[in-house]
Amino acid sequence: TKAKTVVVKKQPQGRSQESNLQWRWPVAGPVVNAFSLAGKVNKGVDIRGKLGESVCAAADGIVVYAGGGLRGYGKLVIVKHNDKFLSAYGHNRTILVKEGEKVKGGQIVAEIGSSSSNQEMLHFEIRRNGKPENPMLYLPGRP
Questions:
Q1: DSSP 32-56
Q2: How wide is the angle at C-alpha 30 spanned by C-alphas 9 and 55, nearest 5°?
Q3: Three-class DSSP category at 133
Q4: What is the pLDDT of residues 78-117, one digit of tens each?
Q5: Mean of the pLDDT values across residues 52-69?
Q6: DSSP letter string over 45-103?
Q7: Residue 17 burial (CB count, 10 A)
Q8: Is the separation of the CB atoms in 92 and 110 below 8 Å?
Q9: Is the CB of residue 90 less than 8 Å from the CB of residue 74?
Q10: Which residues pair with 123 in a beta bridge?
Q11: What's the whole-model pTM score?
């Protein structure tokens, strides 16, 4: 059998500059489920947290959705940052913002709840032109 060579391309740091947004982590915990559009699909990242822990807006924007009507997301907050970018925060216990409200990056928008598999975590997505993108391309590195 032939060994496959995997070429890992380092993402240029230009992705976050391209968005013209100052992205930040919505919660401080470790990523427990990575972004994937193949196999076990995950349109964002799942970040472990404690029940009731604060979830912060990842960048400035306007709350365009705050509710529980989308199956699979639990209580969900969606923030529109500009014409291209949205961020979504799912599996919340409590939503602390209303639709139409302006939020600043770092502002608390919700409290961590648990997923259908009873994991205490935040499901976090970044969408560009409506398509899910890997949040790790935008979020700053961690110390």
A1: EE--BSSSS-BSSEEEE--TT-EEE
A2: 115
A3: strand
A4: 999 999 999 999 999 999 999 999 999 999 999 999 877 7
A5: 97
A6: EEEE--TT-EEE-SSSEEEEEEES-STTSSEEEEEE-SSSEEEEEEEEEEE---TT-EE
A7: 9
A8: yes
A9: yes
A10: 46, 90
A11: 0.86
State the greatest distance between any 2 C-alpha atoms of the chain, in Å, as a whole number. Answer: 58
**pLDDT on residue 42:** 96
For the chain, what is the radius of gyration of the CA atoms? Answer: 15
Model confidence at 34, pLDDT cuts 50, 70, 90, reads very high
Answer for the pair 66, 95: CB distance below 8 angstroms, yes or no. yes
Percent of the chain with pLDDT over 90: 77
CA torsion through residues 37, 49, 57, 99, sign? positive
Q: How many CB atoms sit inside 10 A of residue 59's CB?
A: 24
